[in-house]
Design a protein that fits this description.
Layout: E1 6-7, E2 13-17, H1 20-23, H2 31-36, H3 54-67, E3 72-76, H4 79-82, H5 91-106, E4 110-116, H6 122-126, H7 135-150, E5 156-161, H8 163-171, H9 183-207, E6 212-218, E7 221-224, H10 230-253, E8 255-256, E9 263-264, E10 274-279, E11 282-287, E12 297-300, H11 318-327, E13 334-339, H12 349-365, E14 370-375, E15 395-397, E16 404-406, H13 408-419, E17 421-422, H14 424-430, H15 435-438
Parallel strand pairs: 2-3, 2-14, 3-4, 4-5, 5-6, 6-10, 7-11, 10-13, 13-14
Antiparallel strand pairs: 1-17, 8-9, 11-12, 15-16
Helix pairs in contact: 3-5, 7-9, 8-9, 11-12
Bound molecules: beta-D-fucopyranose.
Beta-D-fucopyranose binds near residues 19, 22, 161, 218 and 278.
Length: about 450
């Protein structure tokens, strides 16, 4: 029987990723909390509530992460806690974050800190948040405060999580607050967030020259349903431009490209020290002349695809490799800032984890400098409009009791991390059917 062990580079960063609103609990002062109280907004009427209780006791989960052998953890700072009213910063809150960050360091978990992950202070939302260009200077002021006070604990900063997803979900699909469906607003919001990223990049470097600053981009492939159809190819490329390419044209090339118009964005040029990839799935795109609202596109899945729970799309691990290759055109260090699947009974996750990490291993053989992998996520958490219905955790958690039970995938990830490798024994134990797919003939 063919055997091979797939080793990862020494010092590779193995982590998990989270976001403040999804785990902290009682984030009553942001736009999500307000949204959750409105009927019909969140699946099954769920609310974030105490979430995973991180504000009170993140340390219990830090212990779990450390016990798994991880050496990295990505979390976000909740702006609405830090600055509950415009210009008033809460020192006790900053002290709590300092305590958490110190707790991570003490456990050998290097923190990556995201400064904005979907949630806005309510006062900002009430002024229109990212629809206003004025939000950029508010954001920079908040970022400066954070870096001044917490910069001795953190060098790895992620300015904004998924500007593309935030803009599209909140302003095009209307599924995130404020629930608008307006193409122009979507474009303005995306543009303001990218400008804010650029301004924050410079502000962080002014205060902390050794900082490593990036952003996390959700790269989702839009592949033509029928590659021979010119129209399918055309609509797929339009979606790809808007969702993927425009972001990097701005923050790397310093250029606004469609749908953001056409023209220079010089101040945004090269505002990345690294790039973060959040990779989940892909879509196939078919031209549909009736679908004006979605730019004449209809999303489908490959007929032979293995589908994920909760309508989450295709299991498509090859996309991870394709996405990394694409980002590598910028010749920047890469972090996989999120990757995972929703799967409550854990019947797909072990194989999914192995397949994605095998794709990552392949990329590393080409000397592409992927520095780390942050699995989404450690413990089941509040999944935005999907509430508690999408369990992404390596560890299962009952939101009513907070009781946590590790899934088999937690043991698998632990074994991979501890050995810094995928071994045939792990394939045999967790997903024997993958042998022919992963091991060489
Ligand atoms: C990403 C978000 C993250 C989480 C995962 C499943 O788009 O960044 O907060 O919800 O999806």
């Amino acid at each position: 029987m063919p055997e091979a062990t797939f080793h990862f580079p020494p010092g590779f960063k193995w982590g998990v990723a989270t976001a403040s609103h999804q785990v902290e609990g009682n984030n009553t002062n942001n736009q999500w909390w307000e949204w959750e109280q409105q009927e019909g907004r969140i699946k099954q009427g769920h609310t974030s509530g105490r979430a995973c209780d991180w504000w009170e006791n993140a340390e219990a989960d830090f212990d779990r992460a450390a016990a798994m052998g991880l050496n990295a953890l990505r979390l976000s700072i909740e702006w609405s806690r830090v600055e509950p009213e415009p210009g008033r910063f809460d020192n006790a809150v900053l002290e709590r974050y300092r305590e958490m960050l110190r707790g991570l360091q003490q456990r050998g978990l290097e923190p990556m800190v995201t400064l904005h992950h979907f949630s806005n202070p309510l006062w900002l939302e009430q002024q229109g948040a990212w629809i206003n260009e004025g939000t950029i200077s508010y954001f920079v002021r908040y970022v400066e405060r954070i870096v001044k006070l917490l910069g001795d604990q953190v060098t790895l900063w992620c300015t904004i999580n998924e500007p593309n997803v935030y803009a599209v979900m909140s302003y095009l699909y209307g599924l995130f607050p404020p629930g608008q469906r307006d193409f122009k607003a979507t474009r303005v919001v995306l543009q303001n967030m990218l400008k804010a990223h650029g301004a924050a990049y410079r502000a962080i470097h002014r205060l902390q020259p050794a900082a490593k600053v990036g952003l996390a981009h959700n790269l989702r492939f839009f592949d033509p349903a029928n590659p021979r159809s010119l129209l399918d190819r055309l609509v797929a490329s339009v979606l790809d431009r808007g969702f993927n390419r425009a972001t990097f044209d701005a923050v790397w090339k310093g250029w606004w490209s469609l749908p953001m118009g056409f023209g220079p964005a010089w101040s945004l040029r090269h505002t990345l020290d690294w790039v973060g990839l959040n990779y989940y799935t892909r879509d196939l795109v078919a031209f549909d002349r009736g679908a004006k609202e979605t730019l004449f596109s209809r999303l489908t899945h490959a007929p032979d695809a293995e589908l994920l729970d909760g309508g989450y799309g295709e299991l498509y691990p090859e996309g991870l490799r394709r996405a990394i290759k694409r980002l590598w055109r910028m010749r920047l260090p890469i972090y996989i800032t999120e990757n995972g699947i929703p799967d409550s009974d854990d019947d797909q996750r072990p194989a999914a984890l192995l397949l994605h990490l095998h794709q990552l291993w392949k990329i590393l053989q080409n000397n592409i400098p992927v520095q780390g992998y942050y699995h989404w996520t450690l413990v089941d958490n509040f999944e935005w409009a999907e509430g508690w219905t999408l369990p992404f955790g390596l560890i299962e958690m009952d939101p009513a009791t907070g009781i946590r039970i590790p899934r088999p995938s937690a043991d698998l990830y632990t074994a991979i991390v501890r050995g810094n490798a995928i071994t045939p024994a792990l394939l045999d134990a967790y997903a024997p059917r993958l042998r022919p797919r992963i091991l060489p003939d």
